[in-house]
């Protein structure tokens, strides 16, 4: 529960900072240019790096049997994101491309409800009947 809660909070911080950056910048420079500035916005880069890096624990969870996810599939998914993140972090040119901002926005929009679903599923012991409908559908 702690891992899923921490990841949910981390992604929520990234999502909130991303949305804040877009709301502040879209009226001035347009959507595409606003996306290009997301990574360098306050509260995005560092939290994103820590939160996405924490996902490597999902490989461990799969390897030791905490979850039923196939190890190879989990490793490929997590490592592909790590490679994409490293490409952005270590490339000054990539940091300011609209694709980096779109990647951050899409990841955070997907991960917040995913980790929240996991939290509810663990706490209630039932991923279907006791999880809020908005997270389950």
From TrEMBL:
Metabolic or biological pathway: Lipid metabolism; fatty acid biosynthesis
UniProt keyword terms in alphabetical order: Fatty acid biosynthesis, Fatty acid metabolism, Lipid biosynthesis, Lipid metabolism, Lyase, Membrane, Signal, Transmembrane, Transmembrane helix
Cleaved signal peptide residues: 1-16
Cellular component GO terms, alphabetical: endoplasmic reticulum membrane
Principal EC category: lyase
Membrane topology: Multi-pass membrane protein
Keyword Nucleotide-binding set for record: no
GO molecular function: very-long-chain (3R)-3-hydroxyacyl-CoA dehydratase activity
InterPro entries the record matches: Tyr_Pase-like_PTPLA
Protein name: very-long-chain (3R)-3-hydroxyacyl-CoA dehydratase
Organism: Grammatophora oceanica
């Amino acid at each position: 529960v702690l891992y899923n809660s921490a990841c949910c909070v981390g992604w929520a911080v990234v999502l909130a900072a991303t949305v804040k950056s877009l709301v502040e910048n879209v009226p001035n420079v347009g959507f595409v240019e606003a996306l290009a500035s997301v990574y360098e916005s306050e509260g995005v880069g560092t939290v994103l790096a820590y939160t996405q890096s924490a996902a490597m624990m999902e490989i461990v969870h799969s390897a030791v049997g905490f979850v039923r996810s196939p190890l190879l599939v989990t490793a490929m998914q997590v490592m592909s994101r790590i490679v994409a993140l490293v490409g952005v972090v270590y490339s000054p040119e990539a940091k300011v491309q609209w694709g980096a901002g779109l990647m951050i926005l899409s990841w955070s929009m997907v991960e917040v409800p995913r980790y929240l679903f996991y939290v509810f599923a663990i706490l209630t012991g039932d991923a279907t009947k006791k999880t809020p409908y908005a997270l389950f559908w």
